[in-house]
Amino acid sequence: MMEHPERRWHDMGGDAAGPVPQDGHDFAIWEKRVDALVILGQGRGHFTVDGLRRALEDMGQDAFETMTYYERWVAALNQNLLEAGVYSVTELGAKMEEVKARGDTYGAAQS
Question: Is the whole model's pTM more than 0.70, yes or no?
Fold first, then answer.
């Protein structure tokens, strides 16, 4: 049972959340690419920061608790690009199969 039924799952302002990690980390290349794609998508007018946020908040609590920050971002980016008609679900599926066929690792994909 939610303590604040008027709040959605992502609204944690004021709730206890534990310590905030202060150590930095290097971003993986795919995380940098997601960040670049978000900037490009917004720059081309495919979505706004509000659209990205809406997709993030609509994912639900399970996604928030099981996905990393950039996994949620890439899912929200994808949702916004689908909604904008940049590509279709069919085109996305075909591209995912093409990429999967390249191999499981970045090294395998380069060969």
Answer: yes
